[in-house]
């Protein structure tokens, strides 16, 4: 990614994570007691609240509105009580009440494509698991045998989308290239099928490396 694109992507990523946290996960938690979200080909949705993001729109059962302009107006139009799920995890970067949304279409598409490919790869790799999109870190992930497998939309450690293998116990070796385990930067030029293949192969390699570097 070019430097300018990284800024555009990171800005859109932070906005969409804030939307996921404050307009879907928070209201869902207050009404149904869960923060779990689901990835979709063109966005993400609640699992117990009929709210979703599709492209650059917020969608609810009887309407929709563009993900643009003041968040407070979007919340009012959709009828939700905005705000993150207080008390579930440490709220670090909540969407401000006065936030004005300005979502970049290309950045949003890359984010959705990466997360959806991550969920698809997880179902291939661990078919008995149910991938969850977690609003705290904005990653789609599962845990198995004390190892976290997932795809992140990006963060301060790595700004773009990446797959990760995160063993609960620290491992040593060249494969383990991140503080939390191993990271694979995703190629923004790859389509969903190619990304899914990349991620699933990375997870398989990670499982093999786990066996070789067991503490």
> What are the low-pLDDT stretches, counting only 5+ consecutive residues below 50?
none
Judging from the principal axes of the Cα atoms, what is the shape?
globular
SSE string, helix = H, strand = E? HEEEEEEHEHEEEEEH
Compute the CA-based radius of gyration. 17 Å
Number of helices: 4
Mean pLDDT: 95
Structural class by SSE content: alpha+beta
Helical fraction equals 25-40%
The strand count comes to: 12
Strand order of the largest sheet: 1-2-3-4-5
Measured by DSSP, the beta-strand proportion falls in 15-25%
Q: For the terminal residues, how far apart are their CA atoms?
A: 36 Å
Major β-sheet profile: 5 strands, antiparallel
Overview of this protein structure:
With 215 residues, this protein is α+β, with helices and mostly antiparallel strands. It is built from 4 helices and 12 strands, in the order αββββββαβαβββββα. The strands form 3 sheets. It has a 5-stranded antiparallel β-sheet with strand order 1-2-3-4-5. α1 crosses α3 and α3 crosses α4.
Quick description:
Helix content is 37%, strand content 23%.
